[in-house]
Fold:
Amino acid sequence: MVHLAREGKVEYICFLLALKATKTHVLPKTFKDVTKLPADSKKRWLESCLEELKLLKDRDVYEIVDLPKGRKVVKNC
Structure:
């Protein structure tokens, strides 16, 4: 969270703290779990996911490439 705070992601930190404050809330462990959340929570999670992906792309953390010939895609469970 310190790293997020340094990057100015106050909204994300507030969102996580609000979730933690709710004793009955269970944090989703997979993207499939996120899709099962109530509409308002799902929207916030999806926005956070997209923001995180954008930040990773902006920092050149990953590169999308074509699958090498003869290789198979690893399934995400």
User: Anything to note?
Assistant: The chain has a mean pLDDT of 78.
